[in-house]
Fold this sequence. Notes:
Elements: H1 11-28, H2 36-58, H3 62-68, H4 81-102, H5 115-155, H6 163-166, H7 172-180, H8 183-193, H9 198-205, H10 209-226, H11 229-233
Amino acid sequence: MSATPTGSDGPTSKARRAESEMARWLRQANYDYRSPAAQQLADALHALGVGTLINLVARDRLFAECHRKGIHGLPAPPDNWRSKAREVIVASVEMAVWKFITVRVKDWDPKKASLRTYFVGSCFFEFKEYYLRYCKEAAHRRKEHLAENITSLFDRRNFQESVEGQVLQERVVGDAMHLMGDEQLARIIELLCQGFPRNEVADMLGVSSRTIDRRLEVIREKLTKNGSWRSAEGR
Length: 235
C-alpha cells in the first residue's frame, strides 16, 4: 500500500490551504458566499475533497472508509466504476462545497473537529447519494443492453450462428434469471444458444414446442415494442 502523499500536492497541503482560505473568507467577507474570498475557499475545499476521495479510490479504500464512517447500504461497484469514479466524486464534492459554504459552515465548531475532518466527512455523505444514483443509472443501462441482446437473439432464424459467443458471453442467461426470476425461460435460452432444436428443448423441459415458441415470442414482442426490459418484467 502506498503512503498518503504529504507534499505540496498531498491532502495535508490541501487542508492547510483550505484552512488559510477559510480564515481569509471569515476575515474579509464574514460568511458572504457571493464574495471572491468565498470562491477561493470553494476552490480549496474542492481540491481537498476530490484529492482525498480519489486517493482512497487509488488505494481501494474508499468503500471501507465509508463503512468506517457509518455509511452503509452501498452496493458493489459496477464493472465500469474505475472509469466513472472521478466523475461521481467530483459531483459529490461540488455539492458538499456548496452546502458547506451556504449552510453548514455555521454549524462547524473548530474546537470539535478540524476543517479537514468536518468537510471531508460531509463529502462522504454526499458521495453516498451520488454513488447510489450512479449505480441505479448503470443498472438501467445494463438492462437496456440486455434487452437489445435478447431481442437480437430472438430475431435469429438459426440459433447456431455464433449465438453462444455473442449472447452467452454477455451473461444473458444469468441476467435473465436475475432480472426476471424466470428459471424456465433462462433454461430455454441457454439450450437454444447451445444449438439444440426447439423440439428437443421442449422434450428436455417437458413442455410443448408451442409453449417454447409462445414464451419466446411474448418476450420478444414486449422488448421490441417498448425497447425496455422493465416492460417485460411486468408481463
